[in-house]
Amino acid sequence: MGLDPRQFVDAVDEKYICKLCHKVFLDPVENVCGHIFCSSCIKKRLKGDMAKRCPVCSAPLTTKTAQPSMDFRLELLNLQIRCHNKCGKTFPLANLPDHMGDECPNTAVPCPNISKGCKKKIRRCDIKKHVEECDFREVECEACGFVTVYCNLFTHQSRVRCLEKKLKQQVIREQRNQANDIKRHRSQLTKLNVRRDVEDRKAFLEHARHLKSGKHKRHGSIENLSDNQTRDVFLTELVNNQAQSDDGSSPPPHPSRTGHAVFSCVRCKKLYNAMSNNEKACRWHAGVSSVPWME
User: Fold this and answer.
1) Cα torsion at 60, 65, 69, 74 (round to 10°)?
2) What digits encode the pLDDT tens for the residues 171-189?
3) What are the φ/ψ torsions at residue 137 (nearest 5 degrees)?
4) Which fold has domain 108-158?
5) Alpha-carbon distance 269 to 266, whole Å?
6) CA gyration radius, the chain
């Protein structure tokens, strides 16, 4: 069978058309009568039940054919043809085998895994994607590392039960990792708590030290105030006494030093103040004649 004349860029001359298939010659051969036909067309006519004669001159067809002249073949091979796979390329007829075999992205080619059982034919532009998804691609069992084709992987894992073992090992590994993480976290928390305790203790001691120093300062201020008040009292008495001495009269004694405010009980011998004496203080004081003390 020849090539469809509509594939060619320009109109094809009638001398390049096979009289048996009515298409452009493909692998032309010359019959004994001098007419040219496609090699496959002559073989098909000789094997079939149709008339085994030349459709032009009725000469018998035979397998004893010859090659057409070199000029004829060169003219035929220089005809410009479009790719019948609609890839958009145009080229001389002589380049058709190379284009279809190596270049055309739309040409169907066998899967590279044909030796492993894949019988699909895929366009050359889709072969990479198919190889990644092919059921006969080589895969490695993720459980035991055994190499097999993808379609047999499930059978292998079901028979050997390696996937189940792998999952158990993975669970154990995850549990160990989780336990280690918890242990590490607890250790970090312990260190953090110890550090915080030390910092809190330092802060507490520092605060206590500040409080103690402030208390001493306040206590010293109170003592100084008492001393100043006592000193003022005695200075006042001294000034008064000095003034009265200058007048020639004796100074009056301090109320706490006179014998008119403090008394001694005759019976219990205890000192008591008559102004604060009552029955509850000492029953012996009541009605007892008191005598001045330190007269």
Assistant:
1) 110
2) 888 999 999 999 999 999 8
3) -75, 150
4) Herpes Virus-1 (3.30.40)
5) 6
6) 65
